[in-house]
Amino acid sequence: MVSRVIPVDPFDLVIFGGTGDLARRKILPGLFRRFCAGQMPEGSQIIGAARSELDDAGYRDMVADAIAEFGGQQACEAGTLDAFLSSVHFVTTDAKGDGGWVELNSKMRDDKVRAFYFSVGPSLFGDLAERLHRFGLATPDSRIVVEKPFGHDLESAKALNATLAQHFDETQIYRIDHYLGKETVQNLMAVRFGNMLFEPLWNAQYVDHIQITVAETVGVGGRGGYYDKSGAMRDMVQNHLMQLLCLIAMEPPAKFEPDAVRDEKLKVIRALEPVDWHHIVRGQYGADDDGPGYRDDVEDPKSRTESFIAMKCHISNWRWAGTPFYLRTGKRLKARASEIAVVFKDAPHSIFGADAGRHRNVLAIRLQPNEGMTLDVTIKEPGPGGMRLLDVPLDMSFADALGPDAEEAPDAYERLIMDVIRGNQTLFMRGDEVEAAWAWTDPLIEGWQARNDVPKTYDPGSSGPEDALMLMHRDGRKWREVKA
Ligand code: NAD
Predict the structure, then answer these.
(1) Residues 395-433: pLDDT tens digits?
(2) Which of 95, 116, 297, 351 is deepest in the core (most CB within 10 A)?
(3) Residues flanking ligand 1, CB < 6 Å
(4) What range does the domain containing 364 cover?
(5) Do residue 352 and residue 452 come from a single domain?
(6) 133 counts as catalytic
(7) Domains of the chain: total
(8) Do 325 and 453 fall into the same domain?
């Protein structure tokens, strides 16, 4: 299979926070990979902007180091790195002061697409937006890219939206949730809306329940201070798991176009019922030989922030009434694995008798590692001795099915940055979506704070607290194993 790379128009991309962790780990190596693939055309400019006193040469050295460390395998011709670096510049710029802005403006070209990536803390978003206008960098066609977290609660998200709206139209604002840039997540829409096979069964009549798991093996590491103010609900559920839930549950949009898709996602969020507190389990990882427990990691022996959450949700609409959605995410779990599993109901009548046991079709969509899908189907156990049934997975690993193309597929950040340049907002969150997600999560957080809820301790390397298993067992169901 030949991958088709369609180059974008030449662009000027300013990365505010161009010396930061995200720029070095994801944005700059990602741009280099797009350059290698022929998608980022020559004649484009990348301008790092941060407070550091660097010149172009110093910044290019930093970018080359970042590519060497985080660039992954490159199938690039000799000389490509030099060609890429020649398009990289740096301007010392202060988001909170006026230094650097005139020089930055002098680098911008009138005939090129302009994108401004806010890879800085959210407290600087307003300053950047205001100065982009005051110093004349923002044109009607310019776009800004903003990183998570988008607010801390509904009130702060509204304030952030209002600040950005003073200077930019909604069509110019690209709120990143990098989960939406993952190949499998987009495949979810292709599988649902490109096939006849699944959609007729995609409802409460045929689906018993849906599980969404995003498990990490790492703890909070050096991010303890930030994480402890946030927790799994704010850091993962309000954004990433919510987006996955929307894509799995939404109605088919009339077209694969930004507002058509985002309108449908918004309807899902608005149809989410408040969650009964008996249906929420929060946890904190304990200590083991490999590392300290959560409270030591965040240096607060009384912390009540969760590093794990599991919950049972319901979507009140015609399609999903009565079908539970179980969400779970946590740190220091057994394996690094993200998966969505659609568990179908039992066949209405078994012609094979009670001895054949219970067999269910499960469509599991793996986000990481080894992106792909499996469909468990029931077959006859081979051999003589009567009709015994067995569930076997039809396994499709994208790497196996697509060969080298799968490896060359852009990672989430690369794809999303190219979408920004193309002006395609389909895979970015709209302001009202983010607010609706906070409107659902805020009362749940306030609820456990009012009850002084203490998260349960769980063993590192496990699947989370025992209570999370019980959440399913009580309903006669069980979580799928967390495995890499
Ligand atoms: P970082 O602290 O490593 O980098 C911050 C950058 O902002 C640096 O380049 C710094 O020089 C610059 N900066 C700070 N104050 C400035 C000012 N007044 N004027 C100009 N530049 C200034 O942070 P990071 O990890 O790169 O994260 C950046 C943003 O991306 C944050 O909003 C973070 O929440 C988000 N994010 C990061 C990651 C990640 O993996 N690092 C993942 C998701 C989201």
Answers:
(1) 877 777 777 666 667 789 999 999 999 999 999 999 999
(2) 116
(3) 16-23, 50-52, 93-96, 119-122, 124, 147-149
(4) 180-473
(5) yes
(6) no
(7) 2
(8) yes
